[in-house]
Structure formats: C-alpha cells, structure tokens
C-alpha cells in the first residue's frame, strides 16, 4: 500500500516549535492507524501558478501550518481553496486557521477585501486582528460544541490546548459565521471567542487557532490530527464519508 501523502503548506524553519513538532505528530497518528506517511513541505513561494497549485490534487491531505507571515499569501489562499473545493482533507493550525477564514470570507461569503492585521496593520476592520491578550506560549481552555465532531473525537466537552499566536478572528466578524449552512463552530474559549471551525459538507476540513501538533512534544497522538490522517487515508483508498478514527518517515523538504 502506498504512503499517505500529506502536503505541508508553509515556509519551513527548523527553529519554529510547531514545524519541529508536526512530523512527529503525524507519525504518532500514523502509528495508531497502522499506515505509512509521506509528508512533503511545500514552501509557499512555490505556489505561484495554476500548475503548481493544481499539483496539490495529487496529495491525500493538506495541512496549512503555522508560521505567518508567509512568503506568498496568495499561494496559501489558493492551496486552501483547492482543499475546500476539491474535497481534499484539510487541517489548518494557528496561521492556517487565519488563512482558512480569509479564504472562506473571500470565496464563499464574497467579502473580497477582508484583511489580516499582521499583513495590513492599517486596515480599519481586519478580519484577523491582534488579540486583546497575547496567546504566545499559553495553554487555554476550549469549550467544544455539544454534539460536534470535535467533542466526539476528544471524548469530552472541555479541553486545554497550547497556543503561540498574537492574532485571531476579529469578534466583529463572528456573527457572520453564525448559522451558516456549510460551516460549524466547533470550539470556543471561555470568553466565547471562536477557536475551532469545520466545514460541514466536506470529508474533513477543520482549522484551529491553537496548535494541536504540540501534543507530540509529550509523545501523544492528537485526536484531531488522527482524524485528519484517517480522512486522508480514505482519500488515498477512494472512500468518502465522515470519518471518526477514535481508535516518522523523514519529512521531505522542498526548498524555496
């Protein structure tokens, strides 16, 4: 059986904790599913045209990793759009969460001018704004939506997760995500700020402001990463549906 090919979208830097943790996080999840993985880092500078972005269709899963600002933001948005529209299992963490929201607002809701305050500090009403309290190296509670996929995967309704970010969804835009027919809010912090989103009619499309990959620093397989990989296995094997797994090869680097 062939390896499960995972595209890691981001500008790899060995000193970034999340980047060091992601290969091990995938390997730990792979061991629980008894599969082999083939992660490939794709530097965002490579995502410059239709041919390069279309090449992502050959992967079984796409993970948009932390580490903004990216070298090529438009390339990242295009990669996320491919995952969303072509039903490729997708996981976005930290900056991946930010850019999944930007792609959704631009291409689904139709708000083409939404901005990220890190990239456009002069934006009057940025979609992604600086957090009122920094979450750099912070562990915080997440309350999972009753009946959500996240709650089923964790097996509990309140969890603690690790963050390393200064930006999040601007609360001014939170109402626009309420009662959407295609998007679910699966987790919030104690102040009701959105921390997990998922697309409803998709094999697996989930994004978190926190960094679940950090669980690998403790040698633990994370349930969200395991489910992402489970959905990727099903794509490899030509299966469809909603997957609840419940139950490292060296990472290839593509240089910029």
Task: Break the fold down into its secondary structure elements and pairings.
Elements: E1 4-9, H1 17-33, E2 37-42, H2 50-54, E3 61-64, H3 73-85, E4 90-93, H4 95-109, E5 128-130, E6 138-144, H5 149-154, E7 158-163, E8 167-169, E9 183-188, E10 194-199, E11 205-208, H6 223-236, E12 252-254
Distance between the termini: 30 Å
Shape: globular
Gyration radius, to the nearest Å?
17 Å
Q: How are the strands of the largest sheet arranged?
A: 7-6-9-10-11-4-3-1-2-12
**Number of helices, where a helix is a run of at least 4 consecutive DSSP H or I residues:** 6
The helix-and-strand class reads: alpha/beta
Corresponding CATH superfamily? Class I glutamine amidotransferase (GATase) domain
**Main pleated sheet:** 10 strands, mixed
DSSP strand content: 15-25%
Q: Give the low-confidence spans.
A: 241-256
State the total count of DSSP E strands.
Answer: 12
Second rung of CATH, namely the architecture: 3-Layer(aba) Sandwich
CATH classification class: Alpha Beta
Helix content: 25-40%
Provide the number of structural domains.
1
Q: What is the H/E string?
A: EHEHEHEHEEHEEEEEHE
């Amino acid at each position: 059986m062939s390896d499960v090919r995972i595209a890691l979208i981001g500008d790899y830097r060995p000193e970034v904790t999340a980047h060091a943790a992601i290969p091990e996080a995938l390997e730990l999840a792979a061991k629980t599913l008894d599969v082999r993985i083939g992660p490939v880092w794709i530097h965002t500078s490579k995502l410059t045209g239709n041919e390069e972005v279309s090449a992502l269709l050959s992967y079984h899963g796409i993970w948009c990793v932390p580490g903004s600002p990216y070298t090529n933001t438009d390339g990242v948005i295009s990669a996320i759009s491919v995952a969303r529209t072509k039903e490729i299992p997708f996981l976005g963490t930290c900056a991946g969460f930010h850019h999944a929201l930007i792609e959704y607002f631009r291409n689904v809701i139709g708000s083409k001018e939404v901005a990220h305050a890190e990239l456009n500090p002069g934006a009057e009403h940025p979609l992604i704004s600086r957090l009122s309290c920094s979450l750099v190296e912070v562990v915080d509670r997440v309350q999972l939506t009753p009946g959500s996929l996240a709650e089923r995967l964790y097996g509990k309704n309140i969890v603690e997760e690790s963050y390393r970010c200064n930006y999040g969804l601007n609360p001014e835009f939170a109402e626009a995500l309420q009662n959407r027919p295609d998007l679910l809010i699966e987790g919030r912090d104690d102040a009701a700020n959105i921390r997990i989103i998922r697309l409803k009619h998709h094999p697996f499309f989930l994004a978190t402001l926190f960094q679940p990959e950090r669980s690998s620093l403790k040698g633990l397989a994370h349930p969200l990463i395991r489910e992402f990989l489970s959905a990727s296995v099903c794509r490899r094997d030509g299966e469809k549906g909603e997957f609840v797994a419940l139950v490292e090869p060296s990472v290839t680097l593509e240089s910029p």
